[in-house]
Amino acid sequence: MKIAKDHQRFRQIVKGKIRKDLRKFLSQGELLGREGKRSISIPVRNIDTPRFRYGDNSDSGVGSGDGQPGDEVGSGEGLGPGGTQQGQHILEVEVGLDELADILGEELQLPRIQPRGRKNITSERDRYTGIRQSGPESLRHFKRTFRRALRRQIMSGVYDPSRPRIIFERGDKVYRSWKTVLSPQSNAVIIYMMDVSGSMGSEQKELVRLEAFWIDAWLRRNYQGIESRYIVHDVRAGEVDRETFFRLREDGGTRISSAFRLAKELLETSYDANEWNVYLFHFSDGDNSSESDSRECCRMLSEDLLPQINLFGYCQVASAYGSGNFINVLHEHLPDIDNLITSRVNTKDDIYDSIKTFFMSGQ
Amino acid sequence: MRRVLPKILADYAESIAEYARLEGLDFYPTIFEMLESDEMSQVAAYGGFPQRYPHWRFGMEYDRLRKQHTYGLGKIYEMVINNDPCYAYLLRDNALVDQKTVIAHVYGHCDFFKNNQWFAKTNRRMMDDMANHATRVRRYISRHGLDPVEEFIDTCLSVENLIDPHSVFMQRRESRSATKERAQKRERGEKDSADSGKYPAKSYMDRYINPPARSTVESTDLDYETGRKHISIPSHPMRDVLLFILENAPLKDWEADVLSIVRSEAYYFAPQGQTKILNEGWASYWHSTIMTRYCLQAEELITYCDHHSGTLATSPGRLNPYKLGIELLRDVEKRWNTGRYGPEYDACDDMETRRNWGKDKAPAGRVVGRGSPGREKIYQVRSIYNDVTFLDEFLTPEFVEEQRLFHYRYDPATGRMVVVNRDFDRIKQQMLFMLTNHAQPYIYVLDGNYRNRGELYLGHRHGYIDLDIKYAKETLKALYRLWRRPVHVESVIDDDPILFSFDGEQSTQQTIDDATPAPANSFA
Fold first, then answer.
1. pLDDT single digits (tens) A94-136
2. What is the ipTM of this complex?
3. Minimal Cα–Cα distance from A188 to chain B, Å?
4. Three-state SS for A304?
5. Measured between CA atoms, how close is B225 to chain A, in angstroms?
6. First-to-final CA distance of chain A
7. Which domain holds residue B157?
8. A238 and A250 inside one domain
9. Which pLDDT tens digit goes with each residue over B16-71?
10. How many domains is chain A built from?
11. Which of B99, B301, B304, B323 could link B312 by a cystine bridge, Cβ 3.0 to 4.6 Å?
12. Residues A289, A332 within the same domain
């Protein structure tokens, strides 16, 4: 196709191979998708041509629908300037979490994860894949049945728009049918650890939340049974549920080893390394309280944790306070270890690169 | 990649065209082509055309559209080009009922292109011209290399929006054809004073015997300080910044040509931006009318309704131009059928009377046929209105309430978009603002020889809303690459008049006070 050249050129610019001057205009555009009730954006690279345009104080618009003054308006753009392109009908479609993960995988060109352990065990699973004329009532496909009935009633002239009553007949009913698929079974546990000391503000939490969402999506795509555990720590560590994990805010100092110790306990009591694929992720602004504690952390990692697990991901978020030194300590004391991966996240745009760093090796 | 339309669709296209003509639509001959979804993404990325000049932004757009399609996030049903003949593309995997709907929709667009005044001056041979543009740019690339040409196109695109969409309808100043007259005089053998110093030559040999570079150097009106040809200063603020640059910036021939290509394409696309709501509303009105009256088979009804409502779906934070357009057109049609206009109706403030106004006159049914006053009225609307005038004239409080429109605003406290109110005046004001000049700032040339140093001085006509400073600074850099002398733009930031400048090395901004030299023109 003619456009292949332009397309290739664009991709090269994005990768920074040519026209480096344009990279500063590169932004994370989005494609909106919907997963259940929440809408989710899929990153699409976009290069913004600088133009004279309006600044911040133009953030208002007109929408339609329900809502009282003060209610939040759903996502999506207002009536923006009309595009210059003619007649494109765009429909929004729901995306499942699985598909989202696939899109992410494709965008970042992530390799499929190779599970360790008992990968030869297979399990059977049923998936609904099609439609058939007979089946149990509990599997009746309501929407299709309804549509067939409506169609039949309209065609036979029984349908009365003023009294829209649809009555199913036997021939209208259709049922979901399934296929049995064999798939290798492997289990995984993700332990998220987060530093909730005084220096982690709400901005940092938001970054962690986003990062954790994508980690979760990708790992769930790769394993059937996933368990997630959440640990928060300042100078002491404790296990919390998911909600609390993202909301909790504490004050005080930071002792990272406390979280590692708790993680180790969890693994020892509940997750046998021979049966589980274990993922540890630690989020912090990297401001550990003392050098000696940092050394203790490195010792625990190399002796207790790293030999047992698939991956330890350390993600350092930028913060206005603190030295952010922990990442350097890790580099210094534990260089060249395959399953220890670190990344820095300063803004939302870094998240995708960070995910890519974590899962590039397919561990 | 062209594929002949299957017989069955060709027949439908013919019969739908008949129905459309029967209803009074009037369009150029329309050629339908069938595309695969990937090809559709390409054509859409090219702005509807089968080919464009090489540039990465088409690749970027293609990338986005292709992903959108592969991930099932949306698909393009149809594209149509304003050209004589009109070209329209159909997506191959669409069901027959979709194809019929799209064909009817396309005839609506074609009628609009042909008859709406705002399109009257567009180039109807754009299909050919786009291909020529592509050839010319390719030639420059093979001569000067891809990078310099591409960089120059990027520069031009930064200022692409600085045109004067209304200028095609009026003559704002004496055109440059004075030079043409001179050439004609010369042909007739008359001696022209401005031509002194030139060797006599036949017109076709003139550019060889009197090369432009030479005549520039020899022309008397050289500016001593800059060594440049004297820059003409606009006699009043000039909105077509691109034209001013094209005529006065020291561009090489190929650069001037590329800039003129970008400019002519910007003018071609401008009316489509000005009439998005009306155009889509008109086309949707017609696909709905034609499908429900003539074409729909019983078994297609549900699929048709499903897709039609999908196209017109609204979500809270987004106004759908298709929906807004078709509803407002139907509202106008209804009002004119029931006599709900004029001073008597406007003066009436009894809600009950207004609600029942002219009900006895109203013909039955939602869609009222040919020859009714409502239908006549919307034909008039499609001929002479654009989005701004359409909404300005026909938006009513009743309509706003019926469509449940609201005004929303960014709330800095919570960082969310929140509903402010449902006040009619505020909503109308906001909608008009968003449609006026594409919701882009008005930028004018105020001086082409600022401080008598050949510097370019632009002005932003400020109305409540500030420029984005970061973008303005980057745009100035692009302007400098064209002008090659310092460039300035005056604007207002937080109620203070500010002058942004770029002199080739650094960006500066300063408050404008009495000590700042004034440009040749000002807004006041």
1. 556 666 677 777 766 667 777 665 544 566 778 888 888 888 8
2. 0.82
3. 27
4. helix
5. 30
6. 37
7. 124-173+239-273
8. yes
9. 999 999 999 999 999 999 998 889 999 999 999 999 999 999 999 998 888 777 76
10. 3
11. B323
12. yes
